[in-house]
Each structure stands twice: as C-alpha cells, then as structure tokens.
Amino acid sequence: MHMMVSKPEQWVKPMAVAGANQYTFHLEATENPGALIKDIRENGMKCFVTFTVTYLCLLQVGLAIKPGTSVEYLAPWANQIDMALVMTVEPGFGGQKFMEDMMPKVHWLRTQFPSLDIEVDGGVGPDTVHKCAEAGANMIVSGSAIMRSEDPRSVINLLRNVCSEAAQKRSLDR
Ligand SMILES: O=C(CO)[C@@H](O)[C@H](O)COP(=O)(O)O
C-alpha cells in the first residue's frame, strides 16, 4: 500500500488488520521514521487467529520520497526498510509527466544499497521505463500507460521485461 497520507502512523494497524502485506509511507509525513518502521514491523508480526485458521501477517516496509526531497535524507533508514520509492511526479494524481531528473536519486540508491528494492512511481510507461531500469529501479508503478493502452497486457509485459533484463545485467556486471 502506498500511503499518500498526512498521518501514516494512524493507518498502520487498520491496514494490517485489513490484510495489507506492504506499507509504504512518505518520509515527509512523519517526525519519527524509525518509530514508524518499528510499529509497522510489530503490527505485521502479529498473528490473527480465527476459529479455524491462524493468519501470520508479515508487513513489508516501504519508504517514499517526493521529488523535492533529497535522497540522502532516506539513507539513514535504508537498512531498516524493504523498499525505497522514488516519486517521479508530485503525489496526488495519475497522468502527470515523468520527471527524468529524479533518476540520479535511483542511481545513487542502487549504488549505495545494491540489494534494496527500488520503486519508481509517476509517468512511467514504455517511453520512460528504460531510464528507470538503467538507473537501477526494479519495481515500477504505472497507471496511465497501462490503463490508456489498447493492449494493457503487452505494456505490463514490456515494463516487467525491461526491469528484469536490467537487473540481470547488473548482477552480471557485479
Ligand atoms: O501515485 C501517483 C501520484 O500520486 C501516480 O503516479 C500513480 O500511482 C501512477 O499513475 P501514472 O503516473 O502512471 O499515470
């Protein structure tokens, strides 16, 4: 879940109870990222027991930064999270133009944290996914490029293939 909310702390437990297995919050939206990461982990580790089945909910932690936030502010938390999300549009709505000048953030993260999942969100489609993958992104959020396509499945396959090929190339280059 990409939580584009002003108070991410208040939604951790409701989302865990609802069955979410991933919780991404914005660095800009909290005074204490470390405490929020801990809270997400603790909520995700709870077991929810029904009459017949025990559910073990594991919550993955994502940390997002808006275009105006320097990537260095995310670094102190990078070893405590499962995924970093680099926004390539201002959070709010789909269909915005891809901000290519966010790619140095992705490259810096990939260089500093080779095994971290790095997601890009905003204006990503067939014309921009190569820049994201070459910079080091291995997770893509795409809305308009897929929904506006006459063949959504082929767009999804393209996005997936471009990222997996770039990841394979990185692993060979190491
Ligand atoms: O998250 C946001 C903006 O808040 C959007 O970027 C969507 O998640 C993706 O939409 P497209 O940019 O791919 O249309």
UniProtKB/TrEMBL annotation:
Listed InterPro entries: Aldolase_TIM, Ribul_P_3_epim-like, RibuloseP-bd_barrel
Top EC class, one word: isomerase
Domain of life: Eukaryota
Reaction equation(s) it catalyzes: D-ribulose 5-phosphate = D-xylulose 5-phosphate
Stated family: Belongs to the ribulose-phosphate 3-epimerase family.
Name listed for the protein in its UniProt record: ribulose-phosphate 3-epimerase
Cofactor(s) the record lists: Fe(2+); Zn(2+); Mn(2+); Co(2+)
Alphabetical list of Gene3D superfamilies matching this protein: Aldolase class I
Record keyword Metal-binding present: yes
Annotated function: Catalyzes the reversible epimerization of D-ribulose 5-phosphate to D-xylulose 5-phosphate.
PROSITE patterns found in the cross-reference section: RIBUL_P_3_EPIMER_2 (PS01086)
GO biological process: carbohydrate metabolic process; pentose-phosphate shunt
Pfam families: Ribul_P_3_epim
Complex and partners: Homodimer.
Keywords, in A-Z order: Carbohydrate metabolism, Cobalt, Iron, Isomerase, Manganese, Metal-binding, Zinc
